[in-house]
Design a protein that fits this description.
Layout: E1 6-10, H1 19-31, E2 34-40, H2 47-59, E3 64-69, H3 74-85, E4 89-93, H4 107-115, E5 120-123, E6 133-138, H5 145-164, E7 168-175, H6 190-208, E8 215-219, H7 222-233, E9 235-241, H8 255-263, E10 267-271, H9 274-286
Parallel strand pairs: 1-2, 1-4, 2-3, 4-5, 6-7, 6-9, 7-8, 9-10
Antiparallel strand pairs: 5-10
Helix pairs in contact: 3-4, 7-8
């Protein structure tokens, strides 16, 4: 996060207090990143509001530019501006459609998460970050090159947020339940599965300096355990990574991530492997 020089902040004109801007100020206050405020609107009639926000931020010592833009759809507008401005992070507040759909992400949010070539921070709650818990979700069972790089990125971003918010970093890794049909006998017994995961975690813990008290290894599906652990710890931010399963042209976010993101009561930082980021960047620049 320290390397992020510019942050794109999506401002929703009908909501007076922007939680996206609040988070952006916290990050930029530490990293000195430039803030580019964007209102996605066809009519371009929010110059006054942007002017007021910009003046207040400049008075507080922030570097700021503003823009009103529209191109076909919300997510396309955001990605276009992110590319044009070279922003290394996009921050957008999630607004629920209705009380019943309070947690469920809107189609625009999903499209943004799938198509955006940079990390996206979705702000889902007004809970302060300062002094809280940051949860990084990884899959220790997957240690191929792409997952290892992604894990490193998830932990690094988790540490960065924890340090700028003076918060505590916790790490969650779910492991599968025993399966009698498993070809490898290790995966037929609960004890042996957990022992293997703990063993894999030792190297991981040493590499990233995470003690046992801050590591949560639980049995069960990730889409249940990640939101459960975030709720139990009262996490302010959950950092998750997504890996394409079926080639880069397919949906980048599998069902697990969709369920996790909808169920989480915290803000969510979504990261992708560099290979996917590069591929998305190519797609965007071809248009």
């Amino acid at each position: 996060m320290q390397a992020i020089r510019s942050i794109l902040v999506v401002i929703e004109p009908e909501h007076s207090e922007s939680l996206a801007l609040k988070r952006a100020k916290l990050i930029a206050g530490v990293t000195q990143a430039h803030l580019h405020l964007l209102i996605c609107d066809k009519k371009h009639d929010h110059a006054g509001m942007l002017g007021v926000l910009k003046a207040a931020l400049i008075a507080d010592g922030y570097s700021v530019t503003t823009e009103q833009a529209w191109n076909e759809s919300l997510h396309e507008t955001i990605v276009d501006v992110q590319q044009a401005e070279g922003c290394g992070l996009v921050i957008k507040q999630h607004f629920p459609d209705s009380p019943l759909k309070k947690a469920l992400l809107t189609p625009a949010d999903w499209k943004l998460l799938r198509r955006c070539p940079t990390p996206v921070l979705l702000v889902k709650t007004a809970k302060p970050w300062t002094g809280g818990v940051i949860l990084a979700a990884i899959d220790v069972g997957n240690i191929d090159g792409e997952h290892r790089t992604l894990h490193a990125s998830i932990i690094d971003h988790g540490y960065d947020i924890a340090s700028l918010a003076k918060a505590h970093l916790h790490v969650i890794s779910a492991h599968p339940s025993p399966m009698l049909s498993a070809a490898d006998p290790t995966f037929q017994l609960k004890e042996t599965i957990e022992a293997r995961y703990r063993e894999q975690c030792k190297a991981f813990q040493a590499e990233f300096d995470i003690d046992d008290a801050h590591l949560h290894i639980e049995e069960g599906p990730a889409d249940v355990l990640i939101p459960y652990t975030a709720h139990k710890l009262g996490a302010s931010v959950t950092v998750i990574g997504t890996v394409a399963r079926t080639g880069l042209s397919g949906a980048l976010i599998g069902n697990t991530a969709e369920v996790v993101l909808d169920a989480l009561e915290s803000d969510v930082l979504v990261l992708k492997p560099d290979t996917i980021m590069d591929h998305l960047e190519e797609i965007v620049t071809q248009h």
